[in-house]
Amino acid sequence: MPSTSTASIAAALAQLVSTDAIYDLRFGEPQKAIERHFAPLKARSLPRANFVNDMCSTDGWYVAGDEGQPWIFFSVGQSERRARFTIAHELGHHLLVTSGSALLDDLDELTESVNELTALEESVCHQFAGALLIPDSDLVEVVGNSQILPGHVLELWRHGTASLEAVAVRVAGIMTFSGAVVIMDNDSTVGFCASSQKLGQPWWRRGSSVDPAGPLSRTTTSEIQATIETYRYGLAHSSQLYCDTLPVNGKFGIAVLSDQPSTNSSKVLVELQPRWRDEVQFCEWCITEERDVGWCDDCKGQRCRRCDRCGCIAPANDPVCPSCRLRSPRRPGAMVCRDCD
Question: 67-76 pLDDT, tens per residue?
Fold first, then answer.
């Protein structure tokens, strides 16, 4: 039996969608397709710039709703292609709590951290949306058995109806190596990132900075081949990968990162060793528990297995109670904390 992965869960989720629904989502008006094929689910646009947050990079939101009325909300300002991807992504969230709820058990098997579980669900919905909007036949025709390059991503986008983000997710999904597709904004920050299953989590969130001396910083202006770049520059789980870039109309750029160079290269990738990897960090809230689960992009540290806190927020500087060994408030003059008093 094949092992469970985000890709296998996304594929199982896609099997719950009928051929007619896929066609309407791909070529018709996705808002009408939702209401036609997935009632009582409804989709509505809202006059908001975007809904992007640290855990989800799509301009939309799914609400299960009260009294059996679920909703998909999406930003009115996004392009038709991006709205199509957003709606398909949020449909994935809906199916995971309705007809595909059994797949949540498979998600639970992949991680023990609540934060990682959320990130994995986002990855599943990304891959689900990509599978709906870009058929396998398109991938075979454009990419075939060739090494994946930025030009393949551009061709799939120009000749289809899916957004660039959907294409990035779909292409990253067929990578059998450690790699990623990165869309760079013209301010040299990450606009979107989709990583391969082998490269794994966590994702590289929108707006992240890149190495100012690396090829990604020049993606919108220069076509570069097989140059070493730091994936997740300055963050936990960073790694060196070969990078190929392709500028598009000076407005954005497409980059493909891989552990396999697209051309002959004498440079060898080096495994990065961030200073916090070998440090043992104890939770300031639980005292005796190590922070050794998941990673926080903000403080670049791991989380406590017991309370799930990272190092972003420190507890009040109360003395350690000799009874319960926790930092808890004491009454004036008391030898133990209020809980043990």
Answer: 778 999 988 7
Interval 272-331: pLDDT, tens: 655 444 456 778 777 777 777 777 766 667 788 888 887 777 665 667 788 877 767 777
The percent helix, strand, coil of the chain (3-state, each to 5) is 30, 20, 50
pTM of the model: 0.71
Q: Two tokens at 171?
A: 């292409």
CATH of domain 136-272: 3.30.450.130
> Which amino acid is present at 174?
I
At 301, the amino acid letter reads G
For the residues of 156-211, what is the DSSP string, one character each?
HHHTSSS-HHHHHHHHHHT--SSEEEEEEETTSBEEEEEE-TTT-SPP--TT-B--
Tell me the sheet residues that pair with 75.
46
CATH architecture of structural domain 1-133: Orthogonal Bundle (1.10)
* Cβ atoms 211, 235 nearer than 8 A: no
